[in-house]
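Thread: quick sanity check before group meeting

JM: Hey all, I'm pulling together slides for Thursday and realized we never actually wrote out the predicted structure for the chain we discussed last week. Dropping the sequence here so it's in one place. If anyone has concerns about the input, flag it before I start.
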Amino acid sequence: MIMKFLVATALVFCTMNLSTSFADENKVGTYNIGLAAGFVTGYGLSYRQWFGKNGVQITLAPYYSSDTTKTDFSMSFGVVGLRMLKEARFVNLFAYYGAHYWYSHLKETTILENNPNAPSAQTTYTTSKRIYAGGGPGLDIHFWKLSFNIMFGLAFTSDLDQSTGIQFTGETGLYYSF
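JM (edit): ok, ran it. Output follows.
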């Protein structure tokens, strides 16, 4: 499993090196705003800023819904460091590393109809907390002021209450540069 990941990473690096050898300079702006989704980056609205070859990405998405029997609140917050490895006119190669915190709280109320003259209710609460941390290589495909990112790598996961593990991860993002 790890060997397949290393071979895939080596192929991406070799392909990028060959395809960008004769390309012009990078056209991605310093400031980027858009949408991102992934285990390590988080999901939701995303802000990305480049400081030369280094960058940072922050992603946030709160979610709330409520009706008579259920209230659901969840939040995704991710912070990622970026390092530009190879710049080209339409495609950049970069590395990313970071962490994503996901929180969910669900309140459900069930009406119990054991006694029709005096119905009662049962309320259950479910809370989940999870942290993802990891990184890997990514491609930034850009044209005009739009930038599409594809990233993959390995992520360490922890439920904070129960289990931990390592998994492959995929990330994506769509940004407007200014």
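AS: nice. The chain has a mean pLDDT of 84. The two ends are 39 Å apart (CA to CA).
JM: adding both to the slides.
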